[in-house]
């Protein structure tokens, strides 16, 4: 059995799942998912249940402790110690970059962010079939989807939120100004005829005020935090993608099946230089 420790928001969970699923398939062994909350993290919830994934989430007493305790981080640590005693623990580090995950076998507990397609590129087709919404798509999203499919659609993802409001997050992640997006838009305009830009953001007011784009713009509204997986799915349906330094928009671009897609990403992923960004952005994506 493989147990994957999940934490953070949807994008992080997708990386953690993709890595673990690769190991599970390679060793023909079941995969189970344990969602934990670490002290100081931005409050999040388990989100992979919205997708057609094969793995089971560990629930029962662990779910009770994690989601209903007033100190979930403490119980997360307790659960982690329990599983540490029963499985071989594999924590992401420099050795995993060098050797890859092919050395990982059965009966392991995985902990890390695993933010690179090199960990799961071998099962790309499987992941693209699993990481799709399994629930009914909202009428609003269907309406946007039809527009996306019938235009030279380009998604733009702008993340502000905790990148500005949470000092811990802000110390790690860069926040990109309007200049980055304007440069990305100009690059797209030089390559794509009559592009239509679909803007996804947790701060659409800022986007409306600051993003001055001459082409047609559609601000995608209505899904909110509880249905952010639909925004990610819609981004993946666009023909091209402009992403920010966010695992959420990374997955929106990666799941895009357009073989001729243009993906633009920022050159500097993290503000904190001690956090490695090696291999996060695929080589075929454009970095500016």
Automatic annotation (TrEMBL):
InterPro entries: Glyco_trans_11. GO terms for molecular function: galactoside 2-alpha-L-fucosyltransferase activity. One of its GO terms (biological process) is carbohydrate metabolic process. GO terms for cellular component: membrane. Keywords: Glycosyltransferase, Transferase. It comes from the Bacteria. This is Glycosyl transferase family 11. It comes from Candidatus Woesebacteria bacterium GW2011_GWB1_38_8.
């Amino acid at each position: 059995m493989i147990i994957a420790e999940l934490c953070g928001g949807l994008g992080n969970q997708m990386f953690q799942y993709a890595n673990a699923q690769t190991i599970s398939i390679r060793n023909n062994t079941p995969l189970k998912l344990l969602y934990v909350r670490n002290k100081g993290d931005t409050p999040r919830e388990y989100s992979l249940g919205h997708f057609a994934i094969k793995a089971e989430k560990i629930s029962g007493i662990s779910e009770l402790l994690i989601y209903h305790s007033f100190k979930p981080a403490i119980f997360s640590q307790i659960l982690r110690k329990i599983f540490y005693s029963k499985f071989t623990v594999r924590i992401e580090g420099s050795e995993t970059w060098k050797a890859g995950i092919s050395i990982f076998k059965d009966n392991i507990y995985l902990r890390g962010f695993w933010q690179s397609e090199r960990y799961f590129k071998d099962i790309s087709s499987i992941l693209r079939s699993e990481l799709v919404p399994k629930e009914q798509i909202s009428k609003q999203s269907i309406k946007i989807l039809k527009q996306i499919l019938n235009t030279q659609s380009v998604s733009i993802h702008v993340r502000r939120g905790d990148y500005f409001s949470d000092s811990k997050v802000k110390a790690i992640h860069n926040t990109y100004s309007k200049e980055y997006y304007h440069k990305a838009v100009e690059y797209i305009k030089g390559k794509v005829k009559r592009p239509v830009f679909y803007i996804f953001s947790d701060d659409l007011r800022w986007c409306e005020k600051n993003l001055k784009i001459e082409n047609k713009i559609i601000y995608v509204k209505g899904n909110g935090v509880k249905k952010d997986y639909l925004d990610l799915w819609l981004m993946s349906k666009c023909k091209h993608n402009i992403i920010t330094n966010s695992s959420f928009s990374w997955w929106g671009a990666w799941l895009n099946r357009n073989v001729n897609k243009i993906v633009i990403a920022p050159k500097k992923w993290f503000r904190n230089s001690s956090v490695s960004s090696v291999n996060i952005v695929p080589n075929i994506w454009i970095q500016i």
